[in-house]
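Predict structure. Chain length: 226.
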Amino acid sequence: MADISIFTSLGLIFTTLLSVWLFFKTSNHKKTLYGIIIWMLFVGILGVTGFYQKLGTFPPRFTLLLAPAILFILILFTNKKSKKFIDSLSLKYLTILHIVRIPVEITLYYIFLGGLIPDLMTFEGYNYDIISGITAPILYYFMFVKKIIGRTGLLIWNIICLGLLINILVIAVLSAQTPFQQLAFDQPNIGVTYFPFVWLPTVIVPIVLFSHLASIRQLLVKKKSY
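Prediction complete.
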């Protein structure tokens, strides 16, 4: 791997564990926690062995970093029992959870400096996702502590931040070394194929995505969710 410091790797590991812990606090459901840990270990082992770095396969190994978790999330939102679980999650923790996007963006910047992702994927390029992390505690404070911002405000924030997440996901996918690559040919997105950075698309991104979708569902269909 390129010149990536141990501190950058530790930062991503810490951010992953923080994401998992905050998500666990949305429900305190131990089976969910155990499931995430098993998934982390599985993709972690694949990352260590270089599974995701192999090119010329079908489907492209890079797509396997995102597709399984996203497909699982879609299934959850179409299942009756899963919907009940989603509606029981703590909206407070679903909101403050997005603070993890601050260390994520800092880590991405250092991965870029190490030569493993393009600048397009950082806050120096077209990745504005750090805004979500910075505003998360602000929304939390004014929504749940001061109760100044209403449900509509929180809904709008979730939709905007979901858009920011989708933006960086599109950039990341189009910058990867796949037959669909459209961006960053001089420095493709290869960083997330290495351990521990494989946990960014396989663990952190799905948790953040799910949290937005769960919050939006709660704010649209439930009278009170906090």
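Summary: DSSP finds nine helices and no strands in the chain.
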